[in-house]
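Posting here for the record, re: 2-acetamido-2-deoxy-beta-D-glucopyranose.
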Amino acid sequence: MASQTLLLLLFLSSLHQIASLETLIYEGFDENSEISREGSSIIKTSHLLKLTNRSTNIVGRAFYKTPFQMLNQTDPQPYAYSFSTNFVFSIVSPNSGSGGFGLAFTIAPSTHFPGAEAGHYLGLFNSTNDGEASNHIFAVEFDTVNGHKGDADSEGNHVGVNTNGMESKITEPAAYIEEGTATVKDDFRMAKVDAVQAWIEYDGEKKTLNVTIAPWELPRPSTPLINNYNLDLSNVMKENMFVGFSASTGQETSSHYLLGWSFAVNGVAPSLNSSNLPNPPPKEEDPSSFPWVQVAVAILSALILSLLCLLIFLACCKRYMDFEVLEDWEKDCPHRFRYKDLKLATQGFEESQLIGVGGFGAVYKGVLPTTGTEVAVKRIVRSPFHGMREFAAEIESLGRLRHKNLVNLQGWCKKKNDLLLVYDFIPNGSLDFVLYNPDNNFVLDWGQRFNILKGISAGLLYLHEEWEQVVIHRDVKTSNILIDGNLSARLGDFGLARLYNHGQASHTTNVVGTIGYIAPELTRTGKASTKTDVYALGVVLLEVVTGKRPLDSDQFFLVEWAIENYHLGQLLEVVDPKLDSVYDAEEVELVLKLGLLCSQHRPDYRPTMKQVTRYLNFDDPLPDTADWGHFGSNSSSRMNSGFLEVTSSLRTVETSGYLSSISMSTKSMDAGR
Ligand SMILES: *[C@@H]1O[C@H](CO)[C@@H](O)[C@H](O)[C@H]1NC(C)=O
Ligand SMILES: *[C@@H]1O[C@H](CO)[C@@H](O)[C@H](O)[C@H]1NC(C)=O
Ligand SMILES: *[C@@H]1O[C@H](CO)[C@@H](O)[C@H](O)[C@H]1NC(C)=O
Ligand SMILES: *[C@@H]1O[C@H](CO)[C@@H](O)[C@H](O)[C@H]1NC(C)=O
Ligand SMILES: *[C@@H]1O[C@H](CO)[C@@H](O)[C@H](O)[C@H]1NC(C)=O
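Prediction output follows.
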C-alpha cells in the first residue's frame, strides 16, 4: 500500500544549460516518507496522512522536506516554472452540520507559518499578513464551509485559487464535469464522497492554471473545473519553494486526510494508481447519538433482520415443499409449467372445473394466474410413462406446433405420478358432441360442416407435410375435433398416441387408435402412417355428411353402408336428414366420394393430405371412380370381401381393450383434451 517512491531526475533540456525536472509520488504514507509535519498532522498505520482531527481551531500541515526550484533565474525577467500535481484527499465531517474548515495545496517559501491561524486562514495566514505580497504563498483551497466574510468564496463546498491571502482569485463550486461535455457539471459534496481526486496544472510559459476534481472512483474528466485561468506566478514564486498541504478546523470541524500525492516541476505529475492507495477513512458516526440511540437501533435492526430471515426461510421451505425437485434436463424445457400455477388455475383440480373424463385421467378448465388465459388441463393421474426425459423432449417438440386448426399444446408439468398437459381452451366442445348429443338442439348447417371439414384437413396437412417433421396424429376422430367460438375445427390430442407407447416394452407394442377409425393395415402391422390418418379422416368425412357414427351396432358399418348406396346410384340418400335437404349437392357429393376414396382398403389407393385439401377446395377434380383401384373395379364380390376383412379386423382390435382407454369418453363438453 504505502509504496512510495521519489524520483529525482536530472536531464539536459538544452546544450548549454541544465534544467531540473523533479518528480515525487506517494501512494500512501509511512514514517519513512520524506514529509515534514506540523500541528495535528499524523501518519496513521493505515498509511493515511491525517492532517486534522475533530478538535476545534487546529492546524495540521505536511510538506515535502526538500524545496523545489520554481523560478527560472537565468532570464533577466525571472518567470515561474510549469508544475503539475495529482492527489487524493478525504474529508470526514460529522453527520450533522457541515464540518469545517478545509485543506489547501500550498507552495510556500518555508514549511513554518509563524502566527498563522486556524479556521478560514487554513493555517497559512493571519489577519495581519493576509493579502501581503511578501507572503509568496500560492494555494488551491478545498473548503467545505464559507470562507471569511466579504470574500469572493462565499459558497461552501468549493475550490478556490489564492495567492498571498485568503481572498480567492477565482472559485468554483465542487463539481464533476461530465465526459464529452464542457459544461455539464455534476455538483458533489466533497465531504460526502469517500475521497476526492484533484489535478492542478500550471503552464509557466502561457501563464495559465487548470484545476480538475473528481470523486476518486470516477475517471478524470477531460475538461478542468477551473480551465485555462490566466495567472502569473512569477512574482509569487521564489527560487526555492516547499510544496505540501495545510488544513485547519474552526468552530466546525472535519478530519482531513491525504491518501496519495504526486508532484512534478516542468513535467507531468505521475498518475496515482487507485489500487495502490490506502482505503479511504470510514465516514464518522454522529457522536451525539452514539451510545444509546445507536445501540438501540442496532439491536432493533438485528431483531428485524433475523425475523425477516426466518420468514424468508419459512417461505422457501413452503415453496420447496410445493414444488417437485427439478432434474437438470427439466430446467431447459420452455413449455414446462409450474405445478403451483396449474393447481391454482384449476382451483386445486376442483370437481366444478372438470370438463371431461377419460381412461387416463380428467380434463379441467382453468385460468392461468400469471396471464389470465383460459386453458384446459389434462391430468393423467398415474403416468404410464417411464422414459420421462424422452417424453419431455417429445412434448417440447409438440409444444412448438402452431396452427389455427390445432388445439395448441401450451405445455406440460409433472409432479410425482401426476402428468399435466396444458392446452388452449376451446369453448364449444367436440364435433362428436355437436353432432350426436341428444340434448344438443343446435344443428350445424351444411356450410358450417363443410368449413369444419376443410379445417380438419388443413390441420392434418400441417401435421403431415408443413411442419419441420412429419407428425402422425394416430387418433383422428370426431371426439378429438373441437369446435371453437367461430365454429372452426381444431384438432386435438395429435401425436400423443405415440407418447402413450413410450416406455412400453417393444414386443408388446399396442395398436393405438379408436375402433371405427382404424385402417385395416394398422391392425395387421401395428404401424401408423400418414395413410392411416387419411383413412380415419375418410370416416370423419362420411360422419359429418351422414350424421351417423362409424359403427352404431354390430350390424351397421358406416363405410360399408355408404359404398352400398353409392353402387345403388343413390349416394345422396345417406345425407343427414337433419339438414332438411338444404345443402350444396356438388359439395356434398364431393365430400362423400372423397370419404370413400380416403377409406379405401389399400393404403396406396388413398390420397395424400395435400391432395385431399386440393379436392376439398375444388382446386383439382376428384379422380374418376374407375381409377380408384379395387373400389372402382365394380366387382362386388371383391369389394365385399375387402370390407369383410376390415370389419373382422375391427373386432380383433376391439378385444385388445387397451384402445378404449386411450380414447377419452366425453362427459358433457370435451374441450381441450
Ligand atoms: C529559463 O529561461 C531561459 C530563457 O527563457 C530558457 O532558455 C531556459 O530553457 C529556461 N530554463 C528552464 C529550466 O526552463
Ligand atoms: C487532535 O490533535 C491535537 C493536536 O495533535 C491533540 O492535542 C488532540 O488531543 C487531538 N484530538 C483528538 C480528539 O484526537
Ligand atoms: C501574523 O503572522 C506574522 C508572520 O507570520 C507574525 O509576525 C504576526 O505576529 C502574526 N500576527 C498575529 C496577530 O498573530
Ligand atoms: C488546461 O486544460 C486545457 C483543456 O481544457 C488544455 O488545453 C491546457 O493545455 C491545459 N493547461 C495546462 C497547464 O495543463
Ligand atoms: C495498478 O496497480 C495494480 C497492483 O499493483 C497493477 O496490477 C495495475 O496494473 C496498476 N495499474 C496501472 C494502470 O498501472
